Amino acid sequence: MAYSNVIDYITIASTGNATDFGDLTLGLSFMCGCCDETRAVYFGGTNPSNDIIHYLTIATTGNAGDFGNLITAKQAKAAMSGSTRGVTAGADSGYEVIEYVTIQTTGNSVDFGDLTSPISAPAGLAA
């Protein structure tokens, strides 16, 4: 398994190749992310399964910063966001925890509730 710390971006309004944005604090795979209008938040990942939350400011390129930590180490999960809150769910090691962060702050995730059963690699949508 290859792990990468590279963050790429594309400009959605035009077609073209990705461009280097910056780097994560360590190489990871199987992360999930969400965002509001100005900030992106990335949850967990594998190297090994971890509890790291990264963030970056969308308008400027640069390396990701440390946001905080998840309640449980996670990989193969889903994330979704509204205008202020990012939510992640998915089970590793039998945990069914749904967690959330307030996107424009930093800090550890907070317990949102529980899934009805352990699910690995769920899908997430938000309206």
> Do you know the CATH architecture?
6 Propeller
Percent helix among the residues?
under 10%
CATH homology-level superfamily:
Kelch-type beta propeller
**Count of domain modules:** 1
Q: Which H/E pattern describes the elements?
A: EEEEEEEEEE
Helix/strand/pairing category? mainly beta
**Gyration radius from CA atoms, angstroms:** 14 Å
End-to-end C-alpha gap: 34 Å
Task: Sketch the major β-sheet.
Answer: 4 strands, antiparallel
Strand order of the largest sheet: 3-4-5-6
Number of helices, where a helix is a run of at least 4 consecutive DSSP H or I residues: 0
**Poorly predicted spans:** none
CATH topology-level fold name: Neuraminidase
Please provide a brief summary of the model.
By secondary structure, the protein is mainly β. Helices cover 0% and strands 50% of the residues. The chain has one domain: Kelch-type beta propeller (Neuraminidase, 6 Propeller), CATH 2.120.10.80.
